[in-house]
Specification:
CATH class of the largest domain: Alpha Beta
Mean pLDDT: 92
Structural class: alpha/beta
Helix content: 25-40%
Strand content: 15-25%
Number of domains: 2
Number of strands: 14
Number of helices: 10
Order of helices and strands: EHEHEHEHEHEHEHEEEEEEEHHH
Strand order of the largest sheet: 8-9-10-7-11-12-13-14
Length: 344
């Protein structure tokens, strides 16, 4: 029997999820939900979804269709309500990152999912890209020896705001940095125990507030990470049409290991091992992140397997995002693990 999924949110990301559902064997689209009737109508037409399978709320969609799970792809400030609607009906959820814009809401969603006994996953799709998976493998295999420090830089051309971004004073944090914060935790297998952060926008910025972020992150064991990201890096606009250069998204990672230094730049990895010539590292085989997430979701629902991107695990990522936001506002170092212990 096919695994049937509802998509909540018919914007660009919701339509992409519909395409991945259709491309994944054994997965079927059960219906769509979108509160904005204009977006619903236009999105359904673009995605080729019958109007009879489109509704304005998750609850109505669940009433009118048979579904095993809901994918929440609404704007990032509107994730909580559709997640609650599905979880209260004991239907599994896969929600886009960040799965909540406050740690309190995120913890409450995890508690609700565990109370109802249904899976809650977060769509951290960067975990399944070839380069981060290879870095994680090299770190965990001991190839680099002990990791001492990390430099992580990521830049993306400004492409206009998401509908929800103007409400956030740290726009790059919640939409873009969330990927990298999650990767730091995941690649190095350590929680972040200290955050000092600052956001700003350059004088010529066309982006919303807080288009650039500097952060110093301390991992368990004392590993130091210097992280920077920005929407205001100019001159890469022509790369948007190039898949080789990741459509203008430039990523640079430098890992200082006991046995050598690992460099990641765009799609390429190089290892400068002590006493040997620098050499290129072959990345692990390509995966389609969204397909892997859908398959993990099905396994979690049907077999009870704990998904890699569980909501419980991603509380650590949301805690770091909130620590960054508080550090920017209060001008002090924050320990995300202490935020996780605050009363609800």
């Amino acid at each position: 029997m096919a695994f049937r999924v509802i998509v909540a949110g018919m914007g660009t990301r919701g339509r992409e999820w519909i395409r991945y559902i259709r491309e994944t064997p054994g997965i079927e689209l059960a219906g769509c939900a979108e509160v904005d009737e204009r977006v619903l109508s236009e999105g359904a037409a673009r995605a080729g979804v019958s109007p009879g399978n489109c509704f304005t709320t998750v609850e109505e969609t669940l009433d009118r269709t048979r579904a095993d799970a809901v994918i929440v792809a609404t704007s990032l400030d509107r994730h909580v309500e559709p997640c609650q609607q599905a979880l209260r009906r004991r239907v599994a959820v896969l929600v886009e990152k960040p799965f909540a814009t406050s740690l309190r809401d995120a913890r409450r969603l995890v508690a609700l999912a565990e109370e109802q006994g249904v899976p809650l996953m977060v769509g951290q799709n960067y975990r399944y890209m070839r380069q981060p998976r290879t870095v994680r493998h090299l770190v965990r295999s001991g190839r680099l020896g002990e990791v001492g420090s990390v430099v992580f830089q990521a830049y993306r051309p400004w492409m206009g705001p998401a509908r929800s971004l103007p409400a956030f004073p740290n726009s790059v944090l919640w939409e873009f940095a969330v990927h990298h914060v999650d990767l730091v935790r995941w690649m190095f297998g350590r929680e972040i125990v200290g955050v000092t952060a600052e956001t700003f926008s350059l004088p010529w910025s066309e982006a919303t507030r807080g288009a650039s972020l500097h952060a110093l992150l301390t991992l368990e064991g004392g590993v130091q990470v210097a992280y920077m990201t920005s929407y205001d890096s100019r001159g890469v606009e022509f790369l948007r049409r190039s898949r080789v250069f990741m459509e203008g998204q430039e990523t640079y990672l430098r890992v200082f290991g006991e046995r050598g230094t690992l460099h990641m730049w765009f799609h390429w990895l190089f290892f400068l091992e002590r006493g040997r010539w620098p050499r290129r590292i072959r990345c692990l085989p390509r995966q389609v992140p969204e397909v892997v997430l859908l398959q993990d979701l099905e396994r979690a629902v049907r077999g009870g397997a704990e998904p890699d991107c569980s909501g419980r695990d991603n509380l650590g990522t949301v805690a770091v995002l909130e620590a960054c936001a508080r550090s920017c506002e209060e001008g002090r170092r924050i320990n995300p693990q202490e935020l996780l212990r605050e009363p609800l």
